Amino acid sequence: MKKTICLLATLFLAFVSSYAQEEADKPHFEAGFYMSSSRVWRGCLSTSSPVMMPELSFNAGGFSAYLWGCSSVSQNYNEFDFGLSYSFPCGITVELADYFYPWCQGFAPDEPEEPCYNIFNYDNHTTGHQLDLMLKWEPENIPVHAMWSTIMFGDDKNDEDAREAYSSYLEAGVYHEWEEAGRIDFTAGACLWRSDSVYEVEKFSVINLDLNYSKTFDLGRVSIPLEVHGILNPVARSPYFVFCAGITF
I want to staple 43 with a disulfide (CB 3.0 to 4.6 A). Which of 63, 160, 190, 207 is the partner? Predict the structure, then answer.
């Protein structure tokens, strides 16, 4: 009798797991809204003002397409991103993101006919866009993660000759996750060579040491993610403490 009950329980759990995976693979939309005490990206301060960050994504199996925005509360900082990604079962994700900054450095008062804050402007010398190609790795059963990123096009030029800098960033991290208590994560990231406009370094430089704690509260169809980051940029000699809270559905 006990063997029969165990067998039925095992079959039931397998069915539930299979059904949950099928539900996750079905095409669906996700939305979220976040508030953060400041905006720090890969160890670089974008704005010290609190920011609002809405997002919308469409997901189907391993494919995802998303829109993401960031607006500061008290400073003139705005960002609008959109991208595509595909995740493989082995834990590898390939992603192409388009970062758009209305205040890009290419715009000047003597060029009013082609302002770079025009989102349709993809002129390589005046655009406010940056195209970022990323390769990410986070295996399922090993508490590590890594990412390579290269800016392939747009507002990423060397100051001396105005050529593409192909600013590249590499990071790796380890984490520990508790079933009920959340996750603690340490990440170290470096710019691999000279980057005048994106990371503002002249050579290989470690620019991001990030110790963060995160926890998500699930409330049915709504989730509330919380994050606390202690960040150090050794090149800028700048520490940052960032708190972020959101709601996703």
Answer: 207
- For 147, other C-beta atoms within 10 Å of its C-beta total 19
Find residue 126's DSSP bridge partners.
none
Give the domain ranges of the chain: 28-248
Structure tokens at 30: 């996700």
Q: Which residues contact 134 (CB under 8 A, 6 or more apart)?
A: 93, 94, 95, 96, 97, 147, 148, 149
In eight-state DSSP terms, residue 162 is -
Other Cβ atoms within 10 Å of 15 Cβ, number? 10
**Chain segment 186-239, per-residue pLDDT in tens:** 999 999 999 999 999 999 999 999 999 999 999 999 999 999 999 999 999 999
Written as six digits, the tokens of 102 are: 């209305």
Q: Give CA–CA dist 79/58, Å, rounded.
A: 20
Domain covering 28-248, topology: Porin (2.40.160)
How many whole angstroms separate alpha carbon 187 and alpha carbon 193? 19
With contact defined as beta carbons under 8 Å apart, do 154 and 130 qualify?
yes
